[in-house]
Amino acid sequence: MKWFAWLGVCFLFAFLFAMSRIQVLRMGFEVTTLKQEVTILAEDVERNRLKIARKKNPAELKKTADELSLRPPKPGEVIYLDE
Amino acid sequence: MNDFYAEQRQEQTQNRILVIVGFLGLGFLLVLGRGLQLQLADNKRLEKMAIQQYQAAIRLATLRNRIMDAKGRELAISVPVWSVYADPKLIRNPKETAEKIAKILHLKSKDLLKLFQKPRRFVWVKRRIREEELAAVDLQNFPGIFRLKESQRFYPNGALAAPVLGAVGIDSNALGGVELEYDSYLRVQEKDDVYHRDAKGRLYLSSDDFVSSPKSGDLYLTIDKNLQFIAEDVLENTVQKYKAKGGVIVVMDPTTGAILAMSNSPTFNPNEYQDYSLKHWKNRAVVDLFEPGSIFKPIVAAILLDNKIVNTRDVFDCEGGEYRLPSGVVIHDAKPHDRISFADVLKVSSNIGMYKASQKITPSLLLDRIKKFGFARKMGIDFPGETSGILRDHGRINPVDFATLSFGHGIGVSAVQMLSAFSALGNHGLLLRPYLVSHVNDGEGMSLYRNSTAVMGQAVSSQTAETVTKLLVQAVEEGTGKEANIPGYSVAGKTGTAQKINPETGGYYEDKFLASFIGFVPAQRPRLSVLVFIDDPQEEHLGGRVAAPAFREVVTRSLPYIEMEEGPAPHPVQVVSSPSPVSGSFEEWGGQWKVPSLEGETMREVLKKTENAPVHIRFKGSGFAQRQEPLPGSFIQKGSTVYVYFEPHR
Asked: For the residues B423-449, what does the mean pLDDT come to?
């Protein structure tokens, strides 16, 4: 009877150990997947930054401003309003 | 009888078993011996073969951090892109694969076939392909054709500030400009250049293989994108209008030494750098020498006034615009003048008047004082290839050289050197070190490196600077610089028209000029100092006609923008350190360490100066310290590395 109890405990530990290893493995995969997602998102951020920066190219802005008949203020044309 | 045959058969069987066992044993021993030989012997060839099966050393475009302008707007950014490579051993039908891929990637199938027939495990097919090209290649699923992620440098503003930024090559190696100067901060390093192969022989690199260098971060320039655009726009229009060979416009904050804009013509697009010759790459404002001409007169005037050798009311006979020197050389003025005050000499830009005034000072004193303005030495701007300029020693200067020096001939200066010296007149006589990079921040916004205002010396007294400023305001309001006058602002400036040197004859061209204008505004509390150089303008060549209007346009467009950004209140004059702030040892300033000047020191002296500072010192060369990185006056963090370059002679 005593031997059966020991055997049971051993099986339990072995089962728990196996389960924990499986869990670790599964979490490892999840972490890797998340890391890849983070990398992809970070790359998207960089690409979007580039797109925005290109849109803000002063030469392009000037071209658009000229089309809309906009011009920068001349000296004295900047007026400050008190809040 | 039967027993006899039975025994004989048994004996034969045993013999056969023995022979088989013997062969097997021998074979086993051979295998064992070979195994031991392979395991124990130092067989480098086999080791290399094994490594080649699961690793490949490939030079890839590594990641680089961003370059931002003074307001945190991207000037250079790296974005991941895909490249396609082949493993020729795994390609089943090279000819068909070459033809199909060539069609998708717009390549020549013959060239591809040659690549696929090479006895190698890795060949680039095409680098940095477009998304749609990648999708088309993926769709076909060619055996032996794979893709790798790389990084590509983009300059979203095209040619804007290109000679300042520089460019990077296909492998992300810095090729020039601040990309090169600050490469150690910009480069995100890989652990090594080795890629791993998976079970199918494909290469892979996990994200863990990239390690950010501890001092790697985004670089923030002092350049303001909008001011840079204004300077470039004005320069390009002026160069085109006068069909000039090129030009330079530099805009500086005279109270800090920060370069706000630095434009060059010709220039290039760093996104397509390979299409331009090297002359387009050059940052002429830093690496080229100019003979300044009349814009140098305020420097000489300040020296004469500071030494109390002349007074603004002293009268000089300008000889009706033509004067023969004792050596026989004749000097001219653009317009004839007779007896005029020293103040008017500067106002009308009389060469004869300046010559006569400068005869009152000894050559050695004049040369020493010119050096105090930062000439004939590197200013220490954080840009590669800075020229130190040319100035004759007083032992070697002849009377004609001395005469012409008074009106800016016989001296070679860089644009940034000239502007720094001139800005001292608007900054209480304090000469400041010009700089292009403001700071470096890591990904979490922590400061890794910070540049700051560094005073190189007191060029002239504050009082003299103020006097010369008044004379320069007159020169703009009533003298040769009228075209630079801006209603609502007082401009202190000076025109210059210098004949260009003919390198073949050593003399001057009769018909080639360098038109220039230099000034700061508002004169009493300057916010901007601007230098305009126009190289070889056609039809019109006077600085007052060609360069002064360009100056006016730069200022007219820049000042309202600055006021919008920073408000109308003028800068207080900022003196952040004493006139000799960079001597001595490392000093702690609010958690950061201020770098002292190590120039001229021996290694022992450098070690003594740095012994109490928590920084690493790296020596290169031997003898006396000639230059250092970071520059004197910079602020660095604890644990940073200071590189000191030595040469045998002091």
From this structure: 91
- Of B60-74, B413-427, B590-604, the poorest mean pLDDT is in B590-604
Q: How does pLDDT run across B8-20, given as a tens digit for each residue?
A: 888 888 888 889 9
The answer, as to whether pTM is greater than 0.90, is no
In a shared domain, residues B103 and B230: no
Its domain, for residue B62, covers 57-220
The shortest C-alpha distance from A78 to chain B (Å) reads 7
Catalytic residue flag (residue B516)? no
* Other beta carbons less than 10 A from residue B523's beta carbon: 21
| pLDDT score, position B574 | 36
Q: Do B156 and A43 touch (CB under 8 A)?
A: no
- What phi, psi does B36 have (nearest 5°)? -65, -40
Half-sphere exposure of B376 (CA within 13 A, CB side): 14
Which residues partner with B440 through β-bridges? B219, B449
Q: State which residue of chain A sits closest to B489, comparing Cα positions.
A: A75
Average pLDDT, chain B: 86
Q: Is the ipTM of this complex over 0.95?
A: no
Give the residue numbers spanning the domain of A64.
34-68
Chain A interface residues (partner B, CB cutoff 8 A):
35-36, 39, 43, 46-47, 49-50, 53-54, 56-59, 62, 72-78, 80
Nearest to B200 by CA among B251, B160, B146: B146
Q: How many domains does chain B have?
A: 3
The answer to whether B80 faces chain A, any CB pair under 8 Å, is yes
What span, in angstroms and rounded, lies between the C-alpha atoms of B501 and A11?
95
